[in-house]
Automatic annotation (TrEMBL):
Membrane topology: Multi-pass membrane protein
Calcium among keywords: no
Source organism phylogeny: Eukaryota, Fungi, Dikarya, Basidiomycota, Agaricomycotina
Originating species: Coprinopsis marcescibilis
Subcellular location: Endoplasmic reticulum membrane
Primary localisation category: endoplasmic reticulum
Descriptive protein name: Endoplasmic reticulum transmembrane protein
GO cellular component: endoplasmic reticulum membrane
Amino acid sequence: MTVYYTLTFFLLFAEMVTFCLLVAPLPYTIRKKLFRFLSNSPIIAKVAYGLKISFIFIGILFVDALQRMYRVTAEADIAKSGHHGVQDVRSDTNLSARKFYAQRNTYLTGFTLFLSLVLTRTFYIILDLIHTQEEYAKLKKSAASSDAKDVEALKTRVKELEAEERDFKTLKQQASQNAKEYDRLATQLNEAPGANKSNKRRD
């Protein structure tokens, strides 16, 4: 395998390891710190820029490998049809090896490009999920604080109403006592002897 296909293989292996790390069931705090580092680090941004350039070259290799695979497949079909005479074992083995290498290079570059797209999309989906979880936590805290304020306001209002009710009961009690005292004094005044005489004189 040539140098650039070897590098493509190592890049594919690195993509597989990275994908496993991205989808691993990590705790929320660790995942949050990891993705914050990956999205804000200038070093990672430079590495990503270099990878984008390398993926352009891998795309060119994919197109070249695809053309070679079609060409070798066509040659193999022509050889099997017997238009160029009887093929010996060496030429048949050579043709099969070329076909295998062309297919291997096509699949290697194709899977590398495909996994790069999957990695990019998975990274941004998980990043959006982390942002959504952060917003949900903020909303939950604000809702809890507002609910606590509402509960405190309701408790204060209930205490005020209870105090007003106690004042009303006290006032009602005082009014009842004053009415009883007035009735007692009025009865006592009516039963007094001087009051009866004055009433008779008036009559």
